[in-house]
Design a protein that fits this description.
The protein is of the alpha/beta class. The chain has 2 domains: about 1-70 and about 185-260, 3-Layer(aba) Sandwich (Rossmann fold); about 70-175, HAD superfamily/HAD-like (Rossmann fold, 3-Layer(aba) Sandwich). The protein is about 40% helix and about 20% strand. The protein has helices at about 25-35, 50-60, 70-80, 95-100, 125-140, 160-175, 185-195, 210-220, 235-240, 250-260, and strands at about 1-5, 40, 70, 85-90, 105, 115, 140-145, 150, 160, 200-205, 220-225, 245. Strands 3-2-1-10-11-12 form a 6-stranded parallel sheet, sandwiched between helices. The chain has a 4-stranded parallel sheet with strand order 5-4-6-7, sandwiched between helices. Helix 5 links the parallel strand 6 and strand 7.
């Protein structure tokens, strides 16, 4: 039996407003009817998992909470395991409240143990200065919620992902430690996602060649590239990457799954 990890952005929803593709609900219902184990995975750092579930529900996508995994599902466990409690956060107010609710201290100065980096549409000079000073002066850890290089916005334009901001701090501060990847498709993320899932073979379905599919293939996971998101098929040759399968719609993916043995 196979199990599916379905990327949210670019596979099930078309934009940051979480507007679903026309065939998203039918596809998820098909998986339920056929008993195909699946989880929806996302590198979204703007909302905690429970709020994401509610936002998706408002768009007509109904998911049980245990069916959704994001880096924010993993981040609190990682911080506690490493004894990190005082934080400077580049991210949304929702992210800050989520961490404070988990028992962490979020402050607006550089005297911290770690700099948490999520998506922040109000990123400015002072935030970058505080983050840089935290790493350079306080030996703070650099902890992006994911290593996304680039993110497509709703207007079709692009901006640097959390991973790109983290790499900027690494370069500026001559940071020598490893920067962990708490997002997909890191080993920590994948193991967390499939921990309670039946099935022998994992398929990651994603529109992101560089962040998701290359990393997944390195872990021995089957890769399915969807052309419905931020990269066109022509990008594969630029990336020198060959996924296991390529589909142009969820209907095509459904037709493929119908051919697989249960």
């Amino acid at each position: 039996m196979i199990r599916l990890l379905l990327d949210l952005d670019g596979v099930l929803v078309r934009d940051k407003a979480l507007n679903p593709f026309p065939d998203t609900s039918d596809f998820l219902n098909f998986l339920r009817r056929k008993g195909v184990p699946f989880k929806v995975v996302s590198n979204n750092s703007t909302k905690p998992p429970r709020e994401m579930i509610e936002s998706l529900k408002g768009k007509g996508i109904f998911l049980e909470e245990e069916k959704f995994v994001s880096p924010l599902s993993i981040l609190p466990h990682y911080l506690r395991r490493n004894g990190i409690y005082r934080l400077f956060v580049i991210g949304t107010p929702n992210l800050k409240s989520y961490l404070e609710g988990g028992g962490f201290q979020v402050v607006e100065n550089h005297a911290v143990q770690a700099v948490i980096i999520g998506q922040d549409r109000n990123l400015d000079f002072n935030k970058i200065k505080t983050a840089t000073s935290a790493v350079f002066l306080s030996n703070a850890k650099i902890l992006p919620v994911n290593l996304s290089r680039i993110v497509k916005d709703d207007d079709g334009l692009y901006f640097p992902g959390a991973g790109a901001i983290a790499r900027m701090l690494v370069h500026a501060c001559n940071y020598k430690e490893d920067v962990p990847n708490l997002g997909k498709p890191s080993e920590e993320f994948i193991n967390y996602a499939i921990e309670d899932m039946p099935g022998e073979e994992t398929y990651l379905v994603s529109d992101d060649i560089y962040t998701d599919l290359v990393g997944a293939k390195n872990l021995g996971i089957k890769t399915i590239f969807m052309t419905t998101g931020k990269y066109r098929k022509e990008e594969l040759s630029k990336a020198n990457f060959c996924p296991d399968f390529i589909f142009e719609s969820l209907k095509d993916l459904r037709d493929f799954l119908e051919t697989l043995p249960r």
